[in-house]
Specification:
87 residues; alpha+beta; 4 strands
Length: 87
């Protein structure tokens, strides 16, 4: 899962959102790996933003977790985009 935050998000706010996502993941599975990719330019504007802060997670979980994560990320205004893939 890749999550893209607004570029001007405060560090505390970003950590709070990441902690919430991690908690949701660990309730139904386990996090295998996590990386903070930092600020990157976007290929095209998303919600009038030209850059974003990227975070990546690799995890194992039950099959219903993607829908739960999708609901949670869509509700957060500071998350401008996310991508969840399955292996």
């Amino acid at each position: 899962m890749v999550v893209v935050f607004e570029p001007e998000i405060k560090a505390e706010e970003k950590e709070k959102l990441l902690t919430g996502l991690k908690k949701t993941i660990t309730e139904k599975g386990k996090i295998l790996k996590e990386e903070d990719w930092g600020k990157k330019e976007l290929a095209y504007p998303i919600k009038k933003q030209r850059s974003g802060l990227f975070c990546w997670f690799s995890f194992e979980a039950e099959s219903d977790l993607p829908k739960i994560l999708e609901k949670k990320t869509k509700l957060e205004e500071k998350i401008i985009r996310f991508l969840l893939t399955k292996e």
